[in-house]
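In response to reviewer comment 3 from the previous cycle, which asked for concrete evidence that the modeling workflow produces usable outputs, we include below a single protein chain processed end to end. The sequence was submitted unchanged, and the resulting structure tokens are shown without manual editing.
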Amino acid sequence: MPKKVNKLKRSKKFSESSKRWILRQINDPLVKKAQQFGYRSRGAFKIIEINDKFKILKKNHIVLDLGAAPGGWSQIAVEICGEGNVFGIDLLEIDPIKGAFFIQQDFLEEDCAQKISNLVKEKTGFEKCNVVLSDMAANTTGDSFVDHLRIITLLEDALKLAVKILKPNGSFVGKIFQGGNSDELVSLLKENFEKVKYFKPNSSRKDSKEIYLVATGFIKH
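The workflow returned the following structure tokens.
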């Protein structure tokens, strides 16, 4: 078993929070496993678990990955759905992934849905997607109430975009955090999808409060 690293050499240049993050990364077996498989983040294993449970990704499905950077979820989507079927958007620039297409833009901008539809049609011949994924998390403030509102609002905005570009019977996955009230969001999801479930992957860190809402069977109103 690899020896656990407890202290960083030349650590004076790092803040205490940075030291904790670096040590956690060094000692995290899923970070090492992701590197072995060539995945860009340990988060790749979360979408693998979600898909094993709910079967939302299938061959030839068209997938939109919101907040796609660094690209771990997009990599898995390409593996399962095939090259040319995966689209991602993020404020950050994303290094190319074979078989995926990326837009560097804020998904909240008014022209975003149309821009995505145009790109999807150009590359696949269709204008709509089968699946919308969101592993996005709002920047935290330290105030649990404010942070909860931010993540809920972010997911609501992601859902608004999903409703515009999903095919009937499509699926939506979004991240929230345990401990806050998500009843209104769940109700909104139930208005637009046949089934809505909570799911916490085993690959989520044990100290993380993140949990995913998985909505299937999109109802086109």
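Residues 108 and 157 are 7 Å apart (CA to CA). We consider this sufficient to address the reviewer's concern, and the full set will be provided in the supplementary archive.
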